[in-house]
């Protein structure tokens, strides 16, 4: 059941940019104008920009902060009570794991942070996650089949889905994919994805997957070691992060049930920025060099090594690409 604050917020969002009478809000809710005024003040304290004018009412301008109620509004209440938003956390992946350790999960649960102090990607590498300029979230995806066989395709498919959503908000950008989980603009990384399986050791099956996404939207300043490797998508463009989060979550969850769709792999190959290029791949303690020739049906990468032999890898990280080839 919606609170007074939520109801007022949703009505303002429906008529965003227009004047909405306080009397009409009070009449619809069958409460006093004073209660509406209190709700408006609470919403303002939560970062919502609302203009008040005598004889006109209230006009909603926006909220630059991430807010679970606004995200729920834009996602049509599909995930109400299953979205948790934090100002700061170590990592949304950690939050998801902690949640799973205490709660049975039979539907997707989402954790979003405005800032991460220990956000990480594959091989535990830190993902720079400053406040206000990015979108960092994790989704628990229950796995009713407990199947691990096609798990490698989940990351490749979600990379495509996330790129598509980003292009809705940045239609002028051409997002490309570096195997297996990085989203690039030209030669710099703007987003990363990590998929971790939650295993049932007795049955050797995956009960859930936790998919984490980190996106540098408007980040301008990076640590010295990342200056040549990472960038924000568009440091000078303001977008509605709550609306982006809602669209991203909707599409990820919808397509997670269909992640083996061959069309997603076709698009992944089309977006790849390493095929036919010389690459260096870290595979555990082993380093492999060669030409990236093909992305296989299971998402694995086929490399022609320097000695001419073909090697297929399902894991590892491409740590260097000869972009000039």
TrEMBL record:
Biotin binds at residues 116, 189. Its EC number is 6.3.4.15. Keywords: ATP-binding, Biotin, DNA-binding, Ligase, Nucleotide-binding, Repressor, Transcription, Transcription regulation. It is an enzyme of class 6 (ligase). One of its GO terms (molecular function) is biotin--[biotin carboxyl-carrier protein] ligase activity. It catalyses: biotin + L-lysyl-[protein] + ATP = N(6)-biotinyl-L-lysyl-[protein] + AMP + diphosphate + H(+). Residues 65-260 form the BPL/LPL catalytic domain. It comes from the Bacteria. Residues 22-41 bind DNA. Belongs to the biotin--protein ligase family. PANTHER family: BIOTIN PROTEIN LIGASE (PTHR12835), BIOTIN--PROTEIN LIGASE (PTHR12835:SF5). Acts both as a biotin--[acetyl-CoA-carboxylase] ligase and a repressor. This is Bifunctional ligase/repressor BirA.
């Amino acid at each position: 059941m919606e609170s007074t604050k939520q109801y007022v917020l949703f009505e303002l969002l429906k008529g965003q940019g227009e004047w909405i009478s306080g009397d009409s809000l009070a009449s619809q809710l069958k409460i006093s104008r004073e209660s509406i005024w209190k709700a408006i003040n609470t919403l303002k304290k939560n970062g919502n920009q609302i203009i008040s004018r005598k004889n006109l009412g209230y006009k909603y301008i926006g909220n630059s902060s991430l807010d679970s109620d606004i995200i729920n509004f834009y996602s049509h209440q599909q995930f109400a009570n299953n979205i948790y938003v934090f100002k700061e956390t170590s990592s949304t992946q950690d939050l998801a794991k902690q949640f799973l350790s205490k709660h049975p999960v039979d539907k997707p649960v989402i954790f979003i942070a405005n800032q991460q102090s220990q956000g990480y990607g594959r091989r535990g590498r830190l993902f720079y996650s400053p406040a206000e300029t990015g979108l960092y979230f994790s989704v628990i995806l229950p796995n009713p089949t407990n199947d691990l066989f096609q798990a490698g395709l989940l990351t490749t498919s979600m990379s495509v889905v996330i790129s598509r959503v980003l292009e809705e908000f940045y239609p002028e950008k051409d997002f490309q994919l570096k195997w297996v989980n990085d989203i690039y603009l030209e030669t710099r990384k703007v987003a990363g994805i990590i998929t971790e399986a939650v295993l049932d050791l007795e049955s050797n099956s995956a009960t859930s997957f936790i998919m984490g996404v980190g996106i540098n939207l408007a980040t301008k300043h990076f640590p010295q070691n990342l200056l040549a490797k990472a960038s924000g998508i568009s440091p000078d463009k303001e977008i509605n992060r709550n609306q982006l989060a809602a669209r991203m979550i909707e599409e990820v969850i919808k397509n997670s049930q269909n992640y083996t769709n061959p069309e997603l792999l076709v698009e992944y190959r089309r977006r790849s920025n390493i095929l036919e290029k010389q690459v260096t791949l870290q595979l555990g303690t082993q380093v492999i060099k060669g030409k990236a020739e093909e992305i296989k049906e299971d998402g694995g990468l086929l490399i022609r090594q320097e000695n001419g032999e073909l090697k297929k890898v399902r894991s590892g990280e491409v740590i260097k690409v000869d972009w000039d080839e």
